[in-house]
């Protein structure tokens, strides 16, 4: 079966809303073994929407739309779908009762002029309730073609797809496509692809594909099989081979974040930690506190942006700053030691650098970052050179800092 995704909404075309529905739905269809060959976005215009449906069903068996189910006159996805299949719209009493109940719980009355249109559906369609909003979805099936209509807000579209669309589409699934992601830090995309080139080139099922993300790189292993267990059994030996090649460079899998991995390690080993940040401006601390329970070990995060703050809060020597500057090996070292000792933690991490876009020099270019790491009485300093925007440099530096701590804890 071939499917495509059609997102409806002028606000998406204008860039006011990020289209996350297509990504979520694509992943769900892949897990069912239903191939997605086309994605498109159309504004709130019934003629253009009808054209998209006509062209889409020439290519595909299934079209899934999101958006255009609101109470306003320009929300016309159901109406256009009904026109395409030549079906009249009829009032669904259960949907109307749900609508009234929804507004009653909010202490408001529904609009008979506007909201009631959300309870009308193409005749003989399958209706999907929406406990998260006022717009139910539906599916129309006719002559081997299936149109699935979902609301636009992701908090409504995602659970509706999971709870109602997946069970509906399982009958079309001849197999499944399963993926596993290995997350890698400290190695660029080119190096990663070269290290894994023999595995990438010699495997067709599963396939191995390298990708570069903003803060890390990933290897996605994808297998196609008749069952999930069969797919996982195909993935396993390839995963083992990749783990042997990349070792400690692999910090996690699938959707796990670096701060989750490091947070668990710190708590499991009962290592207390504090951070002193200049160029990263608190990003390291912000990432750490994303992990629930990190308060057991994370004692303090200090943003010491000025030289005065480095001196007064961390005890960095004025002579060090005068001689070497804020962005230097020596300053990073004293920052890491200062935050660890004043916070009484096992680990102290520091960052000082030039995030740009201005302020660089031939000796200290934009993107230069020094990091200090104090662990159990020993201090190390590393020099990094990043490229990109100010935000990119800061984020990559914070990620490198967490990864460095992770690697050191593994070796303790």
Automatic annotation (TrEMBL):
Highest taxon listed in the record's lineage: Bacteria
Pfam family, one: MoCF_biosynth
Domain MoaB/Mog residue range list: 4-171
InterPro entries: CinA, CinA-like_C, CinA_C, CinA_KH, Competence-induced_CinA, MoaB/Mog-like_dom_sf, MoaB/Mog_dom
Annotated Gene3D superfamilies: 3.30.70.2860, CinA-like, MoaB/Mog-like domain
SMART domains with a match to the protein in the record: MoCF_biosynth (SM00852)
Alphabetical list of HAMAP family matching this protein: CinA_B (MF_00226_B)
Family membership noted in the UniProt record: Belongs to the CinA family.
Record protein name field: Putative competence-damage inducible protein
Source species: Clostridium moutaii
UniProt gene name: cinA
């Amino acid at each position: 079966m071939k499917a495509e995704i059609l997102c409806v909404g002028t606000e998406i075309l204008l860039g006011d809303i990020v289209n996350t529905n297509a990504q979520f739905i694509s992943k769900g269809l892949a897990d069912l073994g239903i191939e997605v060959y086309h994605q498109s976005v159309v504004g709130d215009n019934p003629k253009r929407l009808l054209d998209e449906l006509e062209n889409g069903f020439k290519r595909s068996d299934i079209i899934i739309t999101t958006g255009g189910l609101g109470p306003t006159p320009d929300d016309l996805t159901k109406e256009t779908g009904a026109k395409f299949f030549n079906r009249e719209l009829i009032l669904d009493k259960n949907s109307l009762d749900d609508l009234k109940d929804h507004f009653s719980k909010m202490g408001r009355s529904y609009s008979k002029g506007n909201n009631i249109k959300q309870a009308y559906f193409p005749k003989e369609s399958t209706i999907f309730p929406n406990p998260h909003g006022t717009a139910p979805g539906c599916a129309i099936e006719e002559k081997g073609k299936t149109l699935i209509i979902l609301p636009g807000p992701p908090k409504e579209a995602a659970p509706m797809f999971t709870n109602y669309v997946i069970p509906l589409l399982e009958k079309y699934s001849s197999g499944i496509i399963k993926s596993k992601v290995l997350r890698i830090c400290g190695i660029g995309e080119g190096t990663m692809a070269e290290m894994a080139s023999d595995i990438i080139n010699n495997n067709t099922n599963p396939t191995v594909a390298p990708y570069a993300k903003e803060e890390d790189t990933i290897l996605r292993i994808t297998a196609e099989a008749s069952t999930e267990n069969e797919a996982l059994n195909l993935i396993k030996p390839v995963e083992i081979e990749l783990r042997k090649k990349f070792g400690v460079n692999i910090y996690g899998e699938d959707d796990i974040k670096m701060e989750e991995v490091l947070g668990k390690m710190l708590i499991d080993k009962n290592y207390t930690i504090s951070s002193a940040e200049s160029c990263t401006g608190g990003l390291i601390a912000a990432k750490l506190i994303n992990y629930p329970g990190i308060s057991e070990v994370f004692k303090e995060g200090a943003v010491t942006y000025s030289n005065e703050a480095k001196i007064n809060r961390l005890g960095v020597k004025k002579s060090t700053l005068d001689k070497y500057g804020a962005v230097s090996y020596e300053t990073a070292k004293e920052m890491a030691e200062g935050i660890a000792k004043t916070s009484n933690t096992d680990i102290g991490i520091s960052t000082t650098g030039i995030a740009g876009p201005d302020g660089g020099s031939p000796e200290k270019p934009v993107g230069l970052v020094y990091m200090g790491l104090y662990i159990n009485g020993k201090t190390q300093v590393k020099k990094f050179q990043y490229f990109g925007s100010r935000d990119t440099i800061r984020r990559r530096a914070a990620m490198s800092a967490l990864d460095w701590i992770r690697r050191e804890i593994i070796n303790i």
